[in-house]
Amino acid sequence: xxxxxxxxxxxxxxxxxxxxxxxxxxxxxxxxxxxxxxxxxxxxxxxxxxxxxxxxxxxxxxxxxxxxxxxxxxxxxxxxxxxxxxxxxxxxxxxxxxxxxxxxxxxxxxxxxxxxxxxxxxxxxxxxxxxxxxxxxxxxxxxxxxxxxxxxxxxxxxxxxxxxxxxxxxxxxxxxxxxxxxxxxxxxxxxxxxxxxxxxxxxxxxxxxxxxxxxxxxxxxxxxxxxxxxxxxxxxxxxxxxxxxxxxxxxxxxxxxxxxxxxxxxxxxxxxxxxxxxxxxxxxxxxxxxxxxxx
Length: 295
Ligand SMILES: [Zn+2]
Known about the structure:
Order of helices and strands: HHHHEEEEEHHEEEHHEHEEEH
Structural class: alpha+beta
Strand order of the largest sheet: 1-2-3-6-9-12
Shape: globular
Distance between the termini: 46 Å
Mean pLDDT: 87
Largest sheet: 6 strands, mixed
Number of domains: 3
Bound molecules: zinc ion
Low-confidence stretches: 1-27
Radius of gyration: 22 Å
Number of helices: 10
Strand content: 15-25%
């Protein structure tokens, strides 16, 4: 935040009138400061208001969702050996109508690809059950519902009947990406009714559950919940594989449905609060990716 204040002062003084020179940007600062400064100039965003702009309830969830993609990418790069796997974040192509891939992982020896969709847990969804169990939900739905024209287009592209697609117009199919990645953090966020700001909150009992789930009793609970990243194969989340019937009224085949539910549950059970299938912890990623690619 110090850096933002410093940049705001520069802005108010009008001291950066040569946008390309960068001469008045602190040369000791990190590159991100200059990038932010240049971006705000390019898109006419008053940098002195950047914090308030990000805090807007219309803006913050989008930025947190995008930020989560970077957190997952960083974690995968730390977890997977770089000589064998590469992790990238392809730029989205809004014009193509194709689902943009959040993360692309390439197994370098075989050049085979894995696509990952990053989805935050559903706000405030963490629950402690009876005995040794807990659960949360992952919010796994399209940000833009498919309209009737898009249904016709996607029906041809995906080879799925139009009536099935229109019955699940805000759902992903099990073939649009290979894995879903999520974390526990957002399941502990709430909205302040007065200020409309998001805030993280967990009761003492919930904090203990977080520590048990992540098997980490040393860091701050918020940090633990944020760093507890888990994944599932997209196909394993569908009613066809999970055996949990589709809840869409117009779904023609509720038990053989191949759409991902909007809010799939992640469950933690038994004395050690172990994460339950089909979800698994990010630490298992190399074995799971190898299995997926039949390596
Ligand atoms: Zn269905």
